[in-house]
Write a structure and sequence with these properties.
Blueprint lengths: L1 E7 L17 E2 L2 E2 H10 L4 E8 L4 H15 L5 E5 L4 H11 L4 E8 L7 H12 L4 E7 L5 E5 L5 E6 L6 E3 L3 E4 H10 L7 H7 L5 E4 L10 H11 L7
Helix pairs in contact: 1-2, 5-6
The protein binds cytidine-5'-triphosphate and magnesium ion.
The site of cytidine-5'-triphosphate has 22 residues, from α3.
Length: 237
């Protein structure tokens, strides 16, 4: 079964607070989405890619995708489609455009620009080995507590979660295509990732090792960290 990747890049990047959508923000001289595409285009068994773009930036993402494809030497088709109002809607749009031959679908956040190839390999391998849904996850090092506002609006701790059973989950997340399509058709509650939709409809989600470099660039601090990892050239082009 060949692999199709949906690269969701349609968000505005509100928390990053840049002057353009997050996917187009420069990191070490290239837009964030170009870094993400480099990782995607090296994925084993790849047959097609759909990039989900901020509405209004489809042409720009088309040009960046063509450049990344040429630089990679890969020969798979890369399509660019406009995104939706939230992440789930953007994934759904990507899924509708993904060629049918892709029996395994990876959903990947462009904001996770620096995912090493081993993570793609582990996720694809686990789906090929028979898991319907696969996520990369990292053990949590902080103590995680639930909180609620008291009657003066101040936060109180309501419980401490058992850390050994927690994982911080990343992308790419891998699915049998039928599993992802059913989850998107039948899940009713909001979910921040696709595995969450599979959980809602009763599917099993398998966990493989994630990687610190698969961190999501969300805030200006994250962008600085990603930039430091890439070396001395700095954030600006
Ligand atoms: N995403 C998307 N379509 C949306 C919202 C998010 O394709 N309507 C994508 C983003 O482009 C990103 C990934 O989903 O690659 C994870 O979302 P997040 O990190 O929250 O990015 P933004 O929504 O852009 O950031 P913010 O929430 O700070 O606005
Ligand atoms: Mg968001």
């Amino acid at each position: 079964m060949s692999v199709g990747v949906i690269l969701v890049a349609a968000g505005q990047g509100t928390r990053l607070g840049a002057d353009r959508p997050k996917a187009l923000v420069p990191l070490h001289g290239e837009p964030i989405v170009t870094h993400a595409l480099r990782g995607v285009l090296a994925c084993p068994g790849l047959s097609s890619v759909v990039v989900v773009a901020p509405p209004g930036c489809v042409d720009e993402l088309d040009a960046l995708s063509a450049g990344a494809l040429a630089a990679s030497g890969a020969s798979c088709p890369v399509q660019v489609v406009p995104g939706g109002a939230d992440r789930a809607a953007s994934v759904a749009r990507g899924l509708r455009s993904l060629p049918q031959e892709a029996g395994i679908v990876l959903v990947h956040d462009a904001a996770r620009a620096l995912v090493p190839p081993e993570v793609f390999e582990r996720v694809v391998h686990a789906v090929r080995s028979g898991h319907m849904a696969v996520v990369p996850g990292l053990p949590v090092t902080d103590t995680v507590k639930t909180v609620a506002a008291d009657d003066r609006g101040e936060l109180l701790v309501t419980s401490t979660l058992p850390r050994a059973s927690l994982r911080a989950v990343q992308t790419p997340q891998g699915f049998l295509r039928a599993t992802l399509e059913r989850a998107h058709a039948d899940a009713t509650d909001a979910a921040t990732d696709d595995a969450g939709m599979v959980e809602q409809v009763g599917g099993w989600v398998h966990v493989v090792d994630g990687d610190p470099r698969a961190m999501k660039i969300t805030t200006p601090h994250d962008l600085e960290v990603a930039s430091l990892w890439l070396g001395p050239r700095g954030v600006s082009p």
